[in-house]
Amino acid sequence: MKIEEDNTNSQSIVRVFYALAVVLLGILVAFFVWQNVTDSSSKYPFKLGLDLSGGSHLIYEADVSEIAPAEVSELMGVLRDVIERRINIFGVSEPIVQVEQSSFASNEAAHRLVVELPGVTDVSEAVAEIGRTPLLEFKLVNEEAAAAASVMASIETNGSSSVSTSANTDVYEATGLTGRYLEQAQLEFVGQTGQGGLANEPIVSISFNSEGAQLFEDVTRENTGRILAIFLDGEMISSPRINEAISGGSAIISGSFSPDEARDLAENLNFGALPVPIELVSTQTVGASLGAEVLGKGMTAGLFGLALISLFMILWYRLAGAVAIVSLLIYVVIMLSLFQLIPVTLTAAGLAGFILSLGMAVDANVLVFERMKEEYRDGSDSTTAAQVGFKRAWSAIRDGNVTSILSAIILFWFGTSMVKGFALVFGIGVLVSMFSALTVTRTLLIALPTLKLREGKFGWLFNSGYRK
Predict the structure, then answer these.
(1) pLDDT tens across 314-352, in order?
(2) Phi-psi region of 59 (alpha: psi -120 to 50; beta: other; left: phi over 0)
(3) What is the spatial distance between Cα 129 and Cα 127, in angstroms, rounded to a whole number?
(4) Is the distance from CB of 391 to CB of 442 less than 8 angstroms?
(5) Are 55 and 119 in contact (CB under 8 A)?
(6) Using an 8 Å Cβ cutoff, are 344 and 428 in contact?
(7) Quick check: 324 and 317 in contact, CB under 8 A?
(8) What is the DSSP letter of 456?
């Protein structure tokens, strides 16, 4: 008997030690979160989305009608990188550029580029800066079709046409050579001695990468004698005639530029020539004060939700409910620390997902407590009831959380940027809630003094509802 009593006491001490370690770990994590919140120079601040911090939200739609379906994904990635480089040039803090697809069928999908610019509330300025990045295209002129369309004279005289390329697909033939192959653009001054020429005329010399150089050589070799029109953002700026095959991957863009215009063109091409045309389809601006208001209301909603959950759990499940609240607080600080460490960009939708995950975190505890209640009322002591309750509730907890995680994955995979914010936070919350319920709550419960319902005046603490 003495040996069994000593073993029981040793096990109790170990359980209390584990419980204290869990609580201490929760306190340390809470201190980490608080320190990062109060320290403005912290390496792990909360990253807030535009709807909470203020800024501009732009959506562009890419025209991929002339792109082979197999190349669309790669070109959209190039487009994202180009726009991202361009945005970084004009100093926006932590911009977000994402590619989205509006349907499952690649041949019917609308491919969009979502640009978020924190702190930029002047949409026109943001659009102008992004729009300065040019779309460079090389197209062959069908001279017979051009003559029939009465644009041949303008092409030969000044390298421009009043007829748009989109309306006259028979006039201009795509070569596949675009800004996606551009490697470098440079301002140069070339002296001209011909009649009507200008001394030291500014031009832009461009060089292609290896793939572009080969394509340029093939185009010029196969189309010697034809006119190769150079388009910038849909406007023809030059239309030289191909005299011979051009190897080496170099070309010249001339169009009666002023030195400043040629310099700006070279800079914009170096910043990134767009591989596909884009069109602005949606803009949204959130002021800093409105973002702060949304953040304040979201935090208030979270605190109210936590308070109501805590009140219900304590009133209904008594001591076990109080333990669940401690576990829930540890869950909250773990989630906040993950938001800082990953980092997760918190949006209003993400806050909604976080608040919803609070309920999911309590759901596992409720399932366990209901199983505990049955064991406890059947005569088991509180420690045994806790151990058996967790074991028997595990299958229901597992199935419920797996379905929630699958829902979060589907929303994140196919959703827009706003839906992805909700899905990411909700998915992380479900995973952490399983940890807090099955590890933290269990460790704290079995560390409590062992009680029975019908023995002692404190036995009712492990009962639930209105019964004593």
Answers:
(1) 888 888 888 888 988 999 899 999 988 887 878 778 888
(2) beta
(3) 5
(4) no
(5) yes
(6) yes
(7) yes
(8) S
Q: What is the largest CA-CA distance in the chain?
A: 117
Region of 130 on the Ramachandran plot (φ > 0 left; ψ -120 to 50 alpha; else beta): alpha
pTM assigned to the model: 0.61
Instruction: Name the residue with tokens 């369309």.
Output: 149
11-41+287-462, what's its fold?
Multidrug efflux transporter AcrB transmembrane fold (1.20.1640)
Kindly report the CATH class assigned to 136-273.
alpha beta
Domain ranges of the chain: 11-41+287-462, 50-133, 136-273
Whether 94 and 343 have beta carbons less than 8 Å apart is answered as: no
Provide Rg for the chain, Cα atoms.
33
- DSSP reduced 3-state for 321: helix
pLDDT-based confidence at 167, cuts 50/70/90?
A: very low
DSSP string, 99-151: EEESSS-TTTPPEEEEEEEET---HHHHHHHHHTS--EEEEEE-HHHHHHTT-
Do 422 and 412 contact (CB within 8 A), yes or no? no
